[in-house]
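Action item from last week, closing it out:
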Amino acid sequence: MGKKKDIRSGGNTPYFHQSHARPLSRREFLGQGFIGGLGLALGPSLLGLFGNSTDAYAAAAECGIAVPTGMSSRIPFMAFDLAGGANIAGSNVLVGKQGGQLDALDAAGYVKLGLPTGMHPTDSAQVNSELGVLFHADSALLRGIKDKAAAATLAGVNGAVFCARSNDDTQNNPHNPMYGIAKAGAAGALVTLVGTRSSVSGGNSVAPASQIDATLQPTKVATASDTRGLVDTGKLATLLGSDGSVRVMQAIESISAAKGSKLSEAEIVKTMLNCAYSGTTEKVQQYGNPDVLNPTLDTDITTIFPNQLGDGDFIKTAAIMKLVVNGFAGAGTVQFGGYDYHTGNRSAGELKDFKAGQAIGAALQYAAVLGKPLMIYVFSDGAVSSNGKIDASTDGRGKGVWTSDNGTCAAALMLVYSPTARPRLLSAAAQQIGYYRANGSIETSATAVSNNVQQLAEAVVLNYLALHNDQGRFAQVLPTQGLGPSSGWDQYIAFQSIV
């Protein structure tokens, strides 16, 4: 008879990540994905109820789980990722030469940005300043924002435009600053980061590799049920109430202590499973009724989106803004698809931009209703340009047809809302960071962010810190940042502190 296989070795030994030692600490379990995965897989099932804590908060503290005490002191942050190469510059947010947004381009430059003769911002009637940052008066993005946000809300908003090139139609632009925002202190009572897509960034464009922290990967939230899923424990809270369900779960934890001690590598496994379970227990204690997270039951949201939450883009916007503005999440990404809209007309792009504007306006209005500040960042992978052909249809609005991808016509938009007063610029020149050439293309040598998407994302993190008067920690938050020494940071900062 053959030799008996030793089940403690060979093919039956635990699997480890290549080049990683056996995980021992909670951080190592998180980093290799074990605690997060077990929390989801085991949740409140009997298999996962190990540990001997009789106090949910003590158990949470032992595991490093933050016990929520209300909204984070950091400003809520939302990113809108317009996947495909959207127009932001010129036809939506005005861009100019070195002198700022109204330092006029040549006529051909404006045509390239989709604005025909008669719509150039050299005519003051074509300029709108309601959000502080200058928009074209017939901007579809602006029309959408104004469709959802009240005039009083807009009076508390200011913005800045980054004239910055990015590559067309690719997910590889490291646009998304979510991890840097989290490192800068954004935190939520339930989860740090959320996004509407199951990706490392939570959206289409990737996050800068130097900022990614596997323990902070965004949780996908795109529907009302996704928000409930953050804390849903089935029928337990319904039958027993929040306090009763917590007591039951704590009791099962205590009963299960003996099981944990009998498992192989007992202390490691017991700690891992106890921490996975403690997170669930703590959430039940705080959020016994998961409907408190449901955007479709929030009358402030349904007032902003009347009979519109059956639309996939609007429900995912509502879900993210519900979590972020209320402080359940620190920051969130909303991805909209289909912004590669050079379709032989102008109407497709106008309709897409209007809808994105509605989503942005809704987030601003929700923050205003709750009396909370909010920072919004809007970006896209590349951009589009026009050859001057006009779409005379009603939806085309007599503007230039988008005829090709053109990342040299790109820009990114930053908006900040404060419930107390419109945020003040750091300097008169801060409304436009970088600039355009007269011919309607970005001057790629203007700043460190003009031709470097990763450094553009770093500049957003710097601005987030500056809103808290905390820009002095920028090099600590992003040790490998490429914006140079602190003496030069002001050129990338738009606003004075609002905190």
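Closing note: The chain has a mean pLDDT of 83.
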